[in-house]
Amino acid sequence: MPNFCAAPNCTRKSTQSDLAFFRFPRDPERCRLWVENCRRADLEAKTSDQLNKHYRLCAKHFDPAMVCKTSPYRTVLKDTAIPTIFDLTSHLKNPNSRHRKRIKELTEEDIRRIKERRLASSIEQLHSKKDIEATEGQDATEEEIKLSAEEKDFRDYLRSLFEIVVMLGKQNIPLETNVPEGVERDPSNFQALLEYRINAGDEALRRRFEATAVNVEYLSASQQSRLLDVCEGTVREEVLMEVRESRFFSVVTGDLVEFAGERHLPLFLRFVDQSNALREEFLDFLPFEGDEASLVEKLETQVTDGWGLRMEDCRGQAHVATGTFATKMKAVAVGLMGKYPMAMHTPCSTCALNIHLANSLPFPSVQVVMATLRKIDVFFKQSPSLQTELEKAISVYYQENNEKAAELKEACISNWTEQHNVFELTVDLLESLLLCMDCIRDNENVKFPDAVTGDAYSIAETLADFEFIVTLVILKNALSFTRAFGKNLQGEALDVFFAANSLTAVLHSLNEVFDNIEVYHEFWFEEAVNLAGIMEIPVKVPRLFLRKNRSADAGEIPPETYFKEYVTVPVIRGVIDEVDDIFSQSNLKALKCLSLVPAIMGQMKFNTSEENHADVYCKDLPNPDTLPAELHCWKIKWKHRSKEVRLPSTIHETLQLSDVKFFPNVNCFLKVLTTLPVLMLEDSNRSETSRKRLQTYLSDTPIKHRCKSLAVLHINSHVKHDLDVMVDKYCRLYPEDEPEHGVEAEISTVVI
């Protein structure tokens, strides 16, 4: 939330400048002087605590000598600072204007009291100046005492340590070396870098460790852990400062990650920064323990107590999950919405809608298909030679249709298992995939290692199962009704707007299929049987079901009936329910408000009805009472300009307009709306940096070498950091480590 200056005739706020803003002091006497100089009569009745909590003055009202910049990112006031620079006359030029911050008219008694105070202050300053001149030498000595040579050395030493930790994180270098069991261990990477810096001339480190034996580690495990915690916390705080300034945000979680044998949930936040750009930043890993209610409580505690944010300001949530984990995260989303209804549950823009829908279906046969697709994706990314084998297999099966073969080969180059049409592609590729896996498994020329041939055998066994084939065909056909809808959701703002208005038709089609399930299943099952016949795969009921059926003494069930009851019907019903859940009326209202984007207004011939949907965020607006009039003015503005200029086509372009600030409700509405996770990140190359870095870290780092703190540093390596802030924070959190508390005794503790 932006800070506004409390000074009369001052309209500055934190979102419009780089000026520092300062709270009113808690000290009652100093606070009284601030209020007196402000000449704000309405502030006199408030307590110093109230003023400290709710009111600010910008740096323009203080003598520059009173303002100190302690670091590139931190500005503070001197303890004796009093605001003295005010504009108390400009409002007189427009006597009819309304002023929320009315200036107090001074009585003769007020003027006399101010003169007496200023005279006393002048005398006090004169005496103080004489005292300062007389004790300059003493002050210099005291300054030296305040930061002794030993303490300065300690801070330089800490700075060097933090430089090493930051470098380890940025370059994704694990703390420990990769040494097989039974082999003599080398020094850790951390210790090796310490030695390198000492040998390169780092005097702070050399003085610290010159008496330490060569064959020991330089730092205790506890201090190393503290360094990592401080680094991680400082970088995270830089991101959180921007989130707090923007106020509204959405929570996005990723798939589970393993650290030290425990599963963790990656947490991202979406928000609009001060440059009005939408960003998605990685914050932390949340331990994935306990039931759904426990996870809701942990996530809520992390956001509020851990990060200092308000869940009441959360406007969206999305959870990218697979397998049984998806069912659990869906329950977490429902739990959060129960407490915070405005935290709308939506799909994530980074995951195709059809993949999200399939992952949300808790049926074993569906989850086998999804797990197999993920295995195939990982399998072909191991080596270009594997991709070459797949292309050869495609050429064999489509030798009479070169156009189709070229189309499939091109599709397989990119991440085809993550596309909207993944199920259509998989059906077309199924025969080629099975042939490819068989060739790799045979390994006639011994081109592939045993691990690769073993993976190929496992995948081939799944592909050659009729249950897999029929489930894949049913998913392809059932999700064909949502494919175009989902593709539009990941498109431009205009595409999303039309998608929101087409949902009724999508649900109507799905319900029609469900009402005529017998007919549709007959066609789909016939397609699966024909495909299995070409691949010479027998049509049969799954072995596991037959075994359970025999034990229950039930009669035999035909394959067509079995797959209708246990796959087709549950899949269609599950897709309808999931679409209903993630596109509730509130979600649709919000998406239909994309008509505020000028290009969409123009496309609709300015015949839009935003006011009918705007109530969804009405409480977030600065002036909700004036919203209808403001929307009318907004529409008229662009209607008149539509023939002269190109209309902005995205929320980002609209927010960059200089005159959008004259429409405060529209400005706020668009900022809240764009944080919804269902909307695409407009500058995806920049905005998806955190998500891509997380994937890179996980793929490049073996599980045993993963470190949560270093992962946070690596993923957020684009976030600015200040080593001096890290040093100050360490000294504040761990004062026992400073020299006067005997840090040398701890540092010299050796770990063989």
Automatic annotation (TrEMBL):
Keywords: DNA-binding, Metal-binding, Zinc, Zinc-finger. Residues 1-86 form the THAP-type domain. GO terms for molecular function: DNA binding; zinc ion binding. The keyword Metal-binding applies. This is THAP domain containing 12b. It comes from Hucho hucho.
